[in-house]
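User: Second chain of the day. Same drill as before.
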Amino acid sequence: MSKLQKKALFCLAGVLSFSCALAIAAALGIQLWIKGTVLCKTGALLVNATGEELQKFIGEIQYGLFYGQRVKFCGLGGRPTTFSFFPDLLNVIPASMHVSVIIFTTALVAFALIGTGFFMFNAFGNPYETLHGPVGLYLWCFISCSCGSLVLILFSSEVKMHNLSEKIANYKEGGFLFKTQTEYFGKSFWIVLVCTLTHFLNIFLIRLAGYEFPFSKSKDMDSPGAIDFMY
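Assistant: Same format as last time:
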């Protein structure tokens, strides 16, 4: 593959990595991670609501990693309220898992930016050390993929296994019991998934540029002359 083609591939990978960093940074701060509906079970049982009447007791909830909003219906109209995870809900939610999600999401932004710099350096610079060359590109892409995967796994576990939406809906509701009706992941969650897959794609762009995976290098490639210059 010619030098121009390699530069084009690295530029493409760098643009994709930078786009991922911007998208995840935006997704980190908005409340579009989870959307769902909650049933005011206590109110529905008091009037024995069924069918269409039951709709008067179904509210909405949506939240992100820092704050969210819920609209409760208990037969007397909607009651919109906002909430914040810090410090209000720390005693209710699995705090360590939630903080881990935020940390890994932030790390994903940072590593995506680092990867962008390395891709552009390999496209227009002169990579003179192993970590400045293909091995470094593989490393940062792998770390980004790992951070993205951890975010998806931890957040999914927090929501599904720890009934996060239900705990939020019942926060400071001593007289009413709320039950989750529907629950689905919002745009921010899918942005993280797409960006994780994009970093995985970048690994194959590096391979397409003609550089072997680090674990498949032959011993001959370990000589100093082979890794001093990529081009």
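The longest helix spans residues 95-124.

User: Great, on to the next one.
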